[in-house]
Structure formats: C-alpha cells, structure tokens
Amino acid sequence: MLFAADAGMALFGESAASRVTRHRHPVWKVVLPVDGLALIGREGRRPVAAAGLIVPPELAHTCAASSAYLALFLDPTLLRPGLGPLLLDSASVRRLRAALGLNRIDGSGRTPDLAAAYAELVTRTGVAPSLDPRVTHAVRCSTLPGHHPSIPAIAAEVGLSAARLRTLVRTSVGVPLARLRRWGRLRAAITVLPGRSVAAAAAEAGFADQAHLTRTARDLLGRTPLSLTTGPASGGAGQQ
C-alpha cells in the first residue's frame, strides 16, 4: 500500500488488481492503472473500461483496476465542475504517473510529487474557477486530516450562519459539507492505519467506533478499512 497526502489531495496505490463495490465519494478520483485497464460501472449502464478514469464527486459507481494502480483523490474545489466521468487514454495516464515521479507502488521509493501531478491533470480538465473564499476555507477545514472544528465554528470564522454556510458550499461545489467532513475523518483514519489496528485508527480519527469507520469506508470508498491493510479489495466479479 502507498499513501501520500497534502492539503487538498491524497494518493493511494496498490501493487495488484483491485475491485470495489458501489460507493460515492465527495471528492474527485483519478484512477491510473500501471499496465492494465480501469473499469467503471453505473447502475443501469454497461461498464466502461479505459486506460484511466476521472470520476467526479458524488457519482454512485463501482470501480476496478486490472493491474497495480494509483488512485488520486482531490478536493471538489480543485477541478472544473461538471466534468466526467472522463476516460483517459494511455498517453495521459503515462504523463500523470510520470508527473508523480514514482517508480514503485509499495511506498519504498521517492515521495510522490502531488503538485506536479495536479499541474498535469489540469491540462486535461481545465483550471477550476475561483470560488468564494469562505467556501474554500470551509472545504479545507473539513477535509484536512486532524481535528475538525464544528460547522457552526467554521461558519462563525467566515461570518455566516451554519445554515447559510451549508447552502453556500453545496451550491458552489455540489457536495454537502457534512459529507466532506466524513471524508476528512476517513482520510485521517487511512493516514494512521499503517502500524495501527482499525479500532485504534477509528478512535484517533474521531469515529465513534470501528463499525462507524467501516460503514464510512464502505460508503465513500466501496471497501473496508481492513482491506487497506491486508491487500487488494475484491468486490466480487458480478458487482458492476
């Protein structure tokens, strides 16, 4: 397992093929197989395969990679809204992996260059529009790993009521602020999973218990926290 993160991005990688069940994440996802294909399935539609994928926030889907892969997750404010899902060709996938600068996916190589990967990505998607700084602040406070202030506290910081802030964020980025806060806690738990039990990671990230973390991971990632520590996920060949 490989994991790296900065303020608005997180990178996950596995050295084998993987499949996850139906889920919705409140952030962008970019799937970059090493030498195979990425597959996305949506209810009522035929599965689609490509060299790589860009999946928008809040899209219910299943996903699979037929080889080792990298998955880049980005805050919803970082890419242009209204995109996707987008299919990436092999040349685009190679450029994105090259920008990350990784020779290995087991975490033993150099630190991935997330900023370079983002710069390469926006050449494909276009630059995100400028947002109300109050929205940017609220999203950043909600998704950063670590202690998260309450929504009323964030609203007070930017001079809004909690209800007005929730509406402003949802209108601007299409994602409820509460779901972004769930993502932030999940990201925090994944960050500390290596070397810790799932129960310990849940407690450290602010989940009520291990079951709460597991439900959140299934909802937002389509897999369990334990699968992140024991090897590639398998959602079953029949789950599209």
UniProtKB/TrEMBL annotation:
Q: InterPro entries from the xrefs? A: AraC_XylS_family_regulators, HTH_AraC, HTH_AraC-typ_CS
UniProt keywords (A-Z) are: DNA-binding, Transcription, Transcription regulation
User: Which PROSITE patterns does this UniProt record tie to the protein?
Assistant: HTH_ARAC_FAMILY_1, HTH_ARAC_FAMILY_2
UniProt GO MF annotations: DNA-binding transcription factor activity; sequence-specific DNA binding
Indicate the segments forming the HTH araC/xylS-type domain, all copies: 133-231
Q: What is this protein called?
A: HTH araC/xylS-type domain-containing protein
Q: What organism is this sequence from? A: [Actinomadura] parvosata subsp. kistnae
Stretches assigned to coiled coil: none
Q: One Pfam annotation, family name?
A: HTH_18
The superkingdom of the source organism is Bacteria
